Amino acid sequence: MHCVPLPMIGTDVAWRAAARRLIGARVKPADVLWDFDNQSPQLFESTVELPEPRRPMKVSKEFVALANTAVWHSDPQRFARLYALLWRLRKEPGLMQDRADPELAKLRQMEKNVRRCQHKMKAFVRFRDLRSDGPRRSFGAWFEPTHNTVEPTAQFFMRRFADMDWMIVTPDVTAQFKDGKIAFHEGREKPELPEDGAEALWGTYFCNIFNPARVKISAMTSEMPKKYWKNMPETQFIPGLIADAEKKVQEMREAAPTLPPERMAHIRKQLTAQAQPASWNMLEAEIAGFSEPGFSDRAVMGSGPRDANLMIVGEQPGDQEDLAGLPFVGPAGQVFRAAAGRVGLDADSAYLTNAVKHFKFQQRGKRRIHQNPSVREIDHCAWWLRTEVALVKPRLIVAMGASATRALTGSGTNLLKRRSTVETGVDDVPVFITVHPSHLLRLPDSERASAEAKFAADLQNIAEMSNSAVS
Amino acid sequence: MAQLDLQQKLAILSDAARYDASCASSGTTRRDSTKGGLGSTEGSGICHAYAPDGRCISLLKILMTNFCIYDCAYCINRVSSNVQRARFSPDEVVQLTIEFYRRNYIEGLFLSSGVVQSPDKTMEDMVQIARRLREVEQFKGYIHLKTIPDADQRLIDQAGLYADRLSINVELPTDKSVQAYAPEKSPATIRKAMGAVKEKRAGSLDRSFRGKRPPKFAPAGQSTQMIVGADGSTDRTILGQSTSLYQGYKLRRVYYSAFSPIPDATAKLPLVKPPLVREHRLYQADWLLRFYGFDVGEITQARPDGNLDLEIDPKLAWALQNRAVFPVDVNNASREMLLRVPGFGTKTVGRILQTRRQRTLRYEDLMRLGALVKKAQPFITALGWTPGSLTDSANLRARFAPPPEQLQLI
């Protein structure tokens, strides 16, 4: 018969060392008596010192992890159970994988209990300020864990509260952390800790975060068992909170609706007085939220400096614009950029956008064929264009084609008669009306040269007007 | 009006914050204070206390201020409500967080706010508080910031650098009800802000050509909350909305908050008993969607009105509707099929798969593997157990549903 004494502090290391020797000497589980903390002094003490085995037994990591946790359980049987499992592992190396083995399941249950106890200790230890004069603040706590969890859990508190001194006193073990060093001592009686003002604040918080309309006492007590209550300052309020809950909810229900406070009228007025477009962010979100059948899901926002003097508005993004996410990059855009370059109009310094922000198309085979936006759709999108105008605040807007003209002036008819003139559009910004460059692409070669010249003349005009507007 | 002291302010501003359901402090990066500073986060969250409403208290959940310029019908802090108003100074929030943290009361801070002056100004103040905690106090604990959707993108980008989690509430399940009850809020703006956080997070995971990591952006992800029972949305609508939120914006969590009576409520919304059971069933369904491979259609098919069965849990309801696929043999069914057995959770299924590589499972083993055997009984076969006609018996539902209750006369 071997009797193995195990100390209260450092139990895990002591058990592993003893188990290694015992298993090396082939000592059967029935021949070992484990004596934890001199609680059960044995009649027949063995004085035989077992040697360190020459070839120590190898076990899976899972067993080591299980043993390191389960040794802290308060069940006196834990050491014997662990050793019995270790004994079986010699012959059944796959045993750790068998989750349903009754012996292993029992130890797993113990491991789980210790883990839970450790978790609750992390949660429910309540420190009080010990008001030290030194450079490091000092805190102390009294705690009564169910299992011997102070030692394995101290690491957690070291990682968390490395910049202060603390001590956790329990009936069995005291952990003291001072100047970055941890030490474990014997446990002691509950110490007198000084009153701490923060506890009143914490109590206030606890009472007010509670929602009286949804009382669920069993959910609380299953996670915060009553055995922990006596060392937690906030729990003194629980009976009162439960007692008053029903009354409070009743009061809320019965209270007649009140008149809004005076402040409200004030704030409402300010809110409505604010200019409609709050920000580019909101505008983009609004536009992105648009989805209609027949349109691409993707919005093509305007591009160019957001404080430009000149704003150029086309009809809607085409196939290439939709893919690139930029306006005026397709064939018509290239015609416009080339013509603008020839007359010295810098297209990059202007803010380029479209009357409608989404590509409307019909799918034919693999190709997406452009569709003109309907009047209703132009009017629907005009609000965004106006918001853009209000945000950019250009001095001159160029409306290219009927759709843009409708969106900016309210009417898109008689375009050729109104061409090359300046009208007053929304927000009293002058709107220069011209044709859309895609118009040039559709003309037969015979008419194209003269049309291009006319378009170039318009752009020339625009360049001069925008320059004079700046100066 | 007399100056409020810290205690009074804390009472008002935590009272105002209790309708936010989220109190999670898990799933962020591992940090600790061994190299300076205060605090740690270690993967799993810790609930430091439980209130009598059964909810965990993990974070100091407060509003920066409960002054608000918006008028959302379901909210205690709406402009038209007469609740007492208060405002914390950034210093007070920082001090409260640090002092509570040092006493091991909390895991960190959950900061939300009413909108004052403008969305940008409010967001800026909140970011300021988070920045001070991180940079001045060297706080390594958990920070959850509620983002103001209309705020400038630049501010949200900054917030993500200091906070572990960002959240924006979608408030109500459909755009239409948001318009009806929160007229100043725009669902499109909320979605855009969530989209921006998602993009930013995706970007923060990419390493550069040389393998350098960009700074971490909201490592615990983003979450949202919707109120259940304030509008007429069915559970199918709600779950459909959360599926699209999970998929589209890679949200970590969607919280469901049963609409509960608030002080000084508006006449627009009736104050009823909060639908707590419905909320619970929605969470169960949410888990089925995320971890058990169910889709919304399957979960809500049991009842024609598109709501979940309140008496039995959604997995059991599905199993009762689809008895043709049961019983399944625990010794050779696939993981996907085992996950659909009522009474088996993800952990139990993992253990079944692990153990059956060693040997054939007996019926008695299942209890030790963590299964709820009583619930699983009719739907499984194992060595030493076959349900016989139990699977198809007409009164199977009655075995699980709560017993009928006698109506009371008075």
List keywords for this structure.
heterodimer, A: 471 residues, alpha/beta, five-stranded mixed β-sheet, 17 helices, 15% strand, B: 410 residues, DNA polymerase, domain 1, six-stranded parallel β-sheet, two-stranded antiparallel sheet
Distance between the termini of chain A: 107 Å
- Class by alpha and beta content of chain A: alpha/beta
Order of helices and strands of chain B: HEEEHEHEHEHHEHEHHHEHHHHEH
Strand element count of chain A: 15
N→C terminal distance of chain B: 48 Å
Query: Biggest interface, and residues per chain?
Result: A-B, 82 and 85 residues
**Computed CA radius of gyration of chain A, to the nearest angstrom:** 41 Å
* Average of per-residue pLDDT values of chain B: 91
Tell me what the CATH architecture of the largest domain in chain A is.
Answer: 3-Layer(aba) Sandwich
How would you describe the overall organization of this protein?
The complex is a heterodimer of chains A (471) and B (410). With 471 residues, chain A is α/β, with parallel strands linked by helices. Chain A folds into four domains: 2-120, no CATH class; 125-186, no CATH class; 198-250, no CATH class; 280-470, Uracil-DNA glycosylase-like domain (Uracil-DNA Glycosylase, subunit E), CATH 3.40.470.10. Helices cover 45% and strands 15% of the residues of chain A. Chain A has 17 helices and 15 strands. Chain A has helices at 11-24, 61-70, 78-91, 102-124, 150-160, 198-209, 217-223, 238-254, 262-273, 280-288, 319-324, 331-343, 375-392, 401-409, 415-418, 438-442, 445-470; strands spanning 2-6, 32-36, 128-129, 138-142, 165-169, 173-178, 181-186, 295-299, 310-314, 351-354, 358-364, 367-370, 396-400, 422-424, 430-434. In chain A, the strands form four sheets. Chain A has a five-stranded mixed β-sheet, with helices on one face. A five-stranded mixed β-sheet of chain A has the order 10-9-13-15-14, with helices on both faces. In chain A, a hairpin with a 3-residue loop joins β5 (165-169) and β6 (173-178). In chain A, α2 packs across α4 and α12 (331-343) packs across α17. The longest helix of chain A has 26 residues, at 445-470. The model of chain A has no long low-confidence stretch (mean pLDDT 88). Helices cover 37% and strands 10% of the residues of chain B. Chain B contains 15 helices and ten strands. In chain B, β4 (108-112), α3 (119-136) and β5 (142-146) form a beta-alpha-beta unit. Chain B has a six-stranded parallel β-sheet with strand order 3-4-5-6-7-8. Among the domains of chain B are: 6-173 and 192-227, no CATH class; 323-400, DNA polymerase, domain 1. Chain B starts with 5 loop residues before the first helix and ends in a 10-residue tail after the last helix. The longest helix of chain B has 19 residues, at 187-205. Chain B has 410 residues and is an alpha/beta fold. Chain B has helices at residues 6-15, 90-102, 119-136, 153-162, 175-181, 187-205, 235-249, 276-291, 296-300, 314-321, 335-338, 346-355, 363-368, 373-376, 396-400, and strands spanning 49-50, 56-57, 59-63, 108-112, 142-146, 165-167, 222-228, 253-258, 328-329, 380-381. The interface between A and B is large, with 82 and 85 residues.
